[in-house]
Amino acid sequence: GQCRPDGSEALPKGIVSRTSNLEMYPLWGPPFKGNKKSPMSLLAMAVGKKQKGNVNEIVKKFPSTDFVIMLFHYDGIVDEWRDLEWSSRAIHVSALNQTKWFAKRFLHPDVISEYAYIFLWDEDLGVENFHAGRYLSIVKEEGLHISQPALDPHKSEVHHQMTSRKEGVKLHRRITGLSRSGKRCYENSTDPPCTGWVEMMAPVFSWASWRCAWYMIQNDWIYAWGLDMQLGYCAQGNRTQNIGIIDSEYVVHSGLPTLGGSAENKVRKQSLVELE
Fold it and tell me: What is the superkingdom listed in this entry's lineage (predicted)?
């Protein structure tokens, strides 16, 4: 027979509800039928009021028929988002001075097992040339478990050649030549940053890869430096095949220190502890 989830052994078989999700259900009116087109995907971001305009542009790229939106408000300001058309459908968490890695507390793999893909994005991305539907169809077609949209090299702060957009192609899985970190990359290289690698500003995880990555995220992380080099372990097989950068759906990364304000230098100082 099927294994019982831990702790449910004493319950009669028919009343065990194994999964959960983040959908909101009405308290009155006709019964809610749920989403028939599932599986849905999830967009989670840590946001502040100063970036409200840009966050609005990002969220508008993720249609409510296919995506659940979850925002972590690191400045504690939630009410001032209510005027946005999609705000009442989004899940808002007030989490003072927390980064998007705070999501670990809420996005346990069992809670989000009904979602096909998890977008864990920064709030300062320019999405003019990004289409979520086309992006996911490429990801599925190519069998990518971990991915990110390429960065527009003309307008972005690009730290790594791997994430820079290649024009005229749909996606790339590797770079060759000298990487920005000084490592030489070849056609047969198997390690990051030559292949099997994404940056941490806009990662997209399949549910299976998120189930693995969740265990690597530490509760006190700010920037998650170093996580990018380890994500290959979660690629559900060959990291050189299952991780990729999507060039045809690309974004601009302005690299704003968005947890800013007067505490900005303290934050950066604290984040250096992650490198130790």
Answer: Eukaryota
